[in-house]
Amino acid sequence: MELLFREDPYLKSCAATVTASGPEGLRLDRTVFYPMGGGQPGDCGSLTLPDGSRLRVVDAVKGESHEDVVHVLEEGATPPAPGTQVTAEIDWDRRHRHMRMHTCLHLLCAVVTGDVTGGQIGADKGRLDFNLPDTQLDKEAITAELNRLVAEDHPVQPRWISDDELAAQPDLVRTMSVKPPSGGGRVRLLDIAGVDLQPCGGTHVRQTGEIGRVRVGKIENKGRQNRRINILFEE
User: Fold this and answer.
1) Are strands 226-233 and 125-131 parallel, antiparallel or unpaired?
2) pLDDT tens, position by position, 183-232
3) Tens of pLDDT along 10-62?
4) Which of 71, 170, 212, 222 has the fewest CB atoms within 10 Å, counting from its CB?
5) When comparing pLDDT for 196 and 180, which is higher?
6) What CATH code is carried by the domain that includes residue 26?
7) Distance, CA of 4 to chain centre
8) In the beta sheet, which residues pair with residue 87?
9) Residue 26 CB contacts under 8 Å (≥ 6 apart), including other chains
10) For residue 105, how many C-alpha atoms fall within 13 Å in the half-sphere facing its CB?
């Protein structure tokens, strides 16, 4: 399956062919739908059939491998047969908010020094959990630093390194709970120039200025050393 969102996260739709159809959902030969993973929700949207009718895609999930995306249709929908030509289109407004928040959480990794123990991305808010023993966190200071990095409009670009290069640089991996997929020969990094560099397979904006102003919501204690930082869009 050709994962078009990897090379162009701004692509909103594509022509595709149904390759498999079953009760769990549809597989296509190519897709713009990002499947749930790494704390980022799967895309929703629609499939337009040759007769002009549309099927709602309520979720996208990973199949048997990282190259496999299952498009989950709304309950009661009749899936088209393999070989059917469709136009796959994502809910762009929702995806773009996920892209903005996901990139913002990478900025948070640069502002807060600590290993990430968990995270979640939403269209309105996001969070990261950090392993931070004996650390006092200043909500206003973190908000100011995040908005400074947003306003500086740093370029954001994915790039690839080999499995061996990642193994030689273990400090690149910030997440304790989720390890980057390896074994395929290469690993995708997200590079926010001069700010943050770490493995990530998610979708992101091209420049930090596109994130818009944000603010830190609650900072919660989730255990003796676990601190949860909630981020919201300031809009």
Assistant:
1) antiparallel
2) 567 888 999 999 999 988 899 999 999 999 999 999 999 877 899 999 99
3) 999 999 999 999 889 999 999 999 999 889 999 999 999 999 999 999 999 99
4) 170
5) 196
6) 2.40.30.130
7) 14
8) 15, 48
9) 18, 20, 47, 70, 71, 73, 79, 80
10) 34
Please say whether the beta carbons of 33 and 25 come within 8 A. no
Q: Which amino acid, 23?
A: P
Give the rounded distance of the alpha carbon of 103 from its chain centre. Answer: 8
Q: Does the model's pTM come out above 0.85?
A: yes
Q: Quick check: 37 and 83 in contact, CB under 8 A?
A: no
Q: What is the dihedral of CA 55, 5, 173, 163, to 10 degrees?
A: 120
Strands 125-131 and 156-162: unpaired
Give the span between the Cα atoms of 195 and 193, in whole angstroms: 5
Whether the CB-CB separation of 182 and 163 falls below 8 Å is answered with yes
DSSP 183: S
* 115-121 and 85-90 strand pairing: unpaired
Asked whether residue 124 falls in the same domain as residue 40, the answer is no
Residue count (the chain): 235
Tell me which residue of 108, 98, 114, 116 sits closest to 149, measured CA to CA.
Answer: 108
* 140's tokens: 């206003």
Max CA-CA distance within the chain? 62
d(CA 132, CA 113): 8
Among candidate residues 11, 41, 35, 54, the one with its CA nearest the CA of residue 181: 35
Q: Which of 43, 59, 90 is the last residue of a domain?
A: 90
**Containing domain of residue 23, as a range?**
2-90
